[in-house]
Write a structure and sequence with these properties.
159 residues, alpha+beta, Aminopeptidase, five-stranded mixed sheet
Length: 159
């Protein structure tokens, strides 16, 4: 069952977001800090944001998936058309429940809502090392919008 995330869901949401954070930290310790990736204050702000969609996938009274997206309006650059998007901040399914269609159900819920609201696009960021997520997003029909490159100039070991 899909339902809105609530403040009382904090511990479950933190547990799920930590699973993704652990993958990010393992692959990019030069960027990510160890620790809680979802502080209470940040979570409360997200849940109370009127321009956000925060949903949980619940089974047997346990949250096993979530999607957190924020509505954004882009019009700060004169040469870019004004567009309204939902930006997916987090989409995660518990490691033990992946490949069962839960992530697709969460995404389709957002997609249906976005279409009803006349939203122009759904966007997200994904790390190049996260090949399983990339494959999942492509299976949803998402395509690459742009790419971000970097030249790492120093490591945290140098500091």
């Amino acid at each position: 069952m899909i339902r809105n995330l609530e403040l009382l869901d904090y511990e479950a949401a933190k547990r799920l977001v930590y699973q993704v954070h652990a993958l990010h930290y393992k692959n990019r310790p030069d960027i990510y800090e160890e620790g809680n990736p979802l502080p209470w204050e940040y979570y409360a702000d997200i849940i109370n944001d009127k321009d956000a969609l925060n949903i949980a996938y619940e089974e047997d009274n346990q949250i096993i998936g979530l999607l957190m997206a924020t509505k954004k309006i882009s019009n700060s650059i004169p040469t870019i058309k004004k567009r309204t998007t939902y930006f997916i901040e987090d989409i995660v399914v518990d490691d033990h429940y992946q490949k069962k269609g839960i992530g697709k159900k969460l995404y389709n819920y957002l997609l249906d809502k976005a279409k009803k609201e006349g939203i122009d696009a759904i966007e997200l960021n994904v790390w190049s090392f996260n090949s399983s997520a990339i494959k999942f997003y492509e299976s949803l029909g998402m395509t690459i919008k742009n790419m971000k490159f970097e030249s790492i100039l120093s490591s945290n070991d140098d500091k």
